[in-house]
C-alpha cells in the first residue's frame, strides 16, 4: 500500500483521506481550490487524457460510415435481413407486373383475333363463329381459299402447279375445261366479293371454241367479251398498254391483255 | 458527451441518418481509441470491429447516452479479448517522462512540464499501470462511465472498481513524482 502512494499526500500513508478527492478526479468534478497541488496536477493530467480529439483519434471513420451505410441505411439492420431484402428485390416487381402482362397479352390477342376475323383470314369454323358473333365476313369456301389447280382466272395460280412447267400447266388446263370453267366461275364469284385479284398479268389457256369460258369470266367481271378471239392481238394489246410484258407460250394468252381489251 | 440531444441523434441514426451517426462517432471514437490503446496492441482494428457490431445492433439498442457508452465499451472490450492482445502489454516509461525528469523541480518548471505533458504522455503513464487499474481509470475518466457500469464491464464489484481506481491514481502520482515533476 505504501508503495502505491509514493509522494502522494505525504505524511498520510493510509491515503483514506484522499479518497473523496480521488473520486472527484474520477468523476471529473471541479477540484476545490484548497486541495493539495498534487490533486490539481493529477486532475489536469487526466483531463488531458479525456480531452478533445487529436489527429488520428478519428481513424476508421470511413470504415465505420461504410458499415453504417451498408447495415443501417436500408430498413432492417441485420445482414440477414439485408440479404433477404436484396434477394426479394427482383421478385417484387415481377409479381406486380404479372397481372399487367397477362392483361396486355389478352388484349393483344383479342385485338389480333378481331382484326384477323375482319380480314377473313381465320380458319373457316372460327371465321364462321366470328361472323356470327361480331359480324365479321363470312368464311370463304374451301375451294376459294385453296385456289383452283388450274384456272383461267387471271388471279391465282395453284400452288401445286407452281413448280410445274408451262407445258404441263397448259396440258392440265386443257385437260378439263369444264372443270376449269366451274372453278373459275366459283373463284371469280368469290373474288368479286372480296374485291381482290384483279389485273395480274399471267398466262391462261387460250379459249377453246364452244366453251362457255366467256360466260365464266363474264360472270365475274362482265367484260371478257371476245376473250380469246385473237390471242396474238391480245398480246400486243398488253404490250401497248404499258403493262408488264408476259411471254406466254403457245395456246395461252396474258390475262391482263384480256382485261385491257375488255375495258 | 452529446448530452440532451443524444436521444434524438440516436433515433436519427437508427433511421439511417449518416450525419447523426457521424456525430455519435466523433463523440465516442476518441475515447474508444484511447481506451483500446491501453488494453490492446491493435486498437484501430478492434475499434473498427467494435463499430461494425455497434452499427449492426443499433436498432436493437435501448437506453440513454450513458447506456450507449457502456454498451459500446463492453463490445470493444469483448472484441479486444477476442483479439487476444490485451494481455500482451509491457509498458515502459515513455521517453517524454525521461526528458521531464531532467527538468528542475521548481514550481515554474513543474507548470511547464505539466503543460508539456500531452495526451500521449498521459496515456503512456496510464498504460504503465497494472492492467486492471489502467483499464478502470480509462473507463472511469476517459470513457466517462460510472462505477456501476465499469464494474459490469470488467466483471468486478463496484467496491473493487473503486479501490482499483484509487490505487491507480496514487500510482500515477508516484510515477510523476519519480519523474521529478511535483504535482
Classification by helices and strands of chain B: mainly alpha
C-alpha geometry of chain B: globular
What is the typical, i.e. mean, pLDDT of chain A? 59
Domain count of chain B, please report it.
2
> Number of helix segments of chain B?
10
Which percent bin holds the helix content of chain B?
A: over 70%
Name the quaternary structure. Answer: heterodimer
Total count of strands of chain A:
2
Pattern of helices and strands of chain A? HHHHHHHHHEHHEH
Give the uncertain stretches of chain B in residue-range form: 92-107
CATH fold descriptor of the largest domain in chain B: Arc Repressor Mutant, subunit A
* N-to-C SSE string of chain B, H for helix and E for strand: HHHHHHHHHH
What does this structure look like?
The complex is a heterodimer of chains A (263) and B (183). By secondary structure, chain A is mainly α. Chain A is 53% helix and 2% strand. Chain A has twelve helices and two strands. In chain A, strands 1-2 form a two-stranded antiparallel sheet. Chain A is rod-shaped and about 140 Å long. The model of chain B is unreliable at 92-107 (pLDDT under 50). Chain B starts with 5 loop residues before the first helix and ends in a 5-residue tail after the last helix. By secondary structure, chain B is mostly helical. Chain B has two domains: 3-83, RNA polymerase sigma factor, region 2, helix turn helix motif (Rna Polymerase Sigma Factor, Chain: A, Orthogonal Bundle), CATH 1.10.1740; 95-178, Winged helix-like DNA-binding domain superfamily/Winged helix DNA-binding domain (Arc Repressor Mutant, subunit A), CATH 1.10.10.10.
